[in-house]
Amino acid sequence: MTESPPQNAPQDAEGTTTPAEKPLAPDAPRLPRPIGTSHLIPDTILGPRPSSTFLAVVSITTLAADIATKLWAEKRLEGYPGYIHVFDEHLMFILAKNKGGAWGLLQGQSENVRRPFFLLVSVIAIAFIVTLYRRLQPHQHALKWGLPLVLGGALGNVFDRIRYGYVIDFIDYRAEWVHKLNEIIAKYTAGHVVTDHWPTFNVADVAICVGVGLMAVDMLTTRRGKKTTYSDDVPIEP
Fold first, then answer.
1. Catalytic residue numbers?
2. d(CA 54, CA 36)
3. What is the mean pLDDT of residues 16-38?
4. Is the pLDDT of residue 145 over 90?
5. How far, in Å, are 9, 16, 19 from residue 3 at the CA level?
């Protein structure tokens, strides 16, 4: 009587069962998976990825700073005289309630249109930032800081829109370069008002602008197509 081959017996290319090969040195202990194999490459060769804790700390700190300064502005600037001079003819604090977006975007639209629009845009932006942060490489230091700043600023303005239906601004800036910039814009945009006054903003707007600037730095400095070099002493699984 012929014994049937075991179910897990190896087969050749034609499907014929071949006898199983005996392992060499069956009594020798097997080595564990070496450090530096494929599933550990991102944290051993390229360095540690930016952590979600860092994202949370920077964004929450930015959000807290924005909320605190807005509460101060509401309390300090609501009554008479309603403003504080910081640098004469250049910088002052004055309370403003912006129902629109940057540069008064959708300022004249109905609240039923304006609020859902800005909330939807904010949710999409927040989801995009979190997704992009999770894909960061260890060398992207500018984005590591830029994305949390943008996230914290976006959360600050969203918090205002949910609570008030508008965004609290209080930083008022004027400068000659702003006037010249508006003159250039007026040459190509009909009806543009030439002024030395920059639209009133807040701490969240500052964080967003700095974050976007860092994102631009990352785009300009990242050398795409460069092959990553690995150290000879780091084992890599084929």
1. 169, 205
2. 25
3. 62
4. yes
5. 13, 15, 12
- Structure tokens belonging to residue 147: 């994305």
In this structure, what is the dihedral angle of CA atoms 237, 140, 219, 205, given to the nearest 10 degrees?
Answer: 150
Q: Are 111 and 165 in contact, with CB atoms under 8 Å apart?
A: yes
Contact call for residues 36 and 46 (beta carbons, < 8 A): no
Is 191 strand, coil or helix? coil
Contact 9, 17 (CB under 8 A): yes
Helices within the chain (DSSP H only): 41-44, 52-77, 111-134, 141-163, 176-188, 203-221
Please state the rounded mean pLDDT for residues 81-98.
Answer: 89
Q: Are 171 and 66 in contact (CB under 8 A)?
A: no
**Cis previous bond, 81, omega within 30:** yes
Which backbone phi and psi does 199 adopt, to 5 degrees? -55, 135
Indicate the Cα dihedral angle 120, 121, 123, 128, nearest 10°: 140
Closest CA to 148 of 49, 47, 57: 57
Angle at 133 between CA 129 and CA 139, to 5 degrees: 140
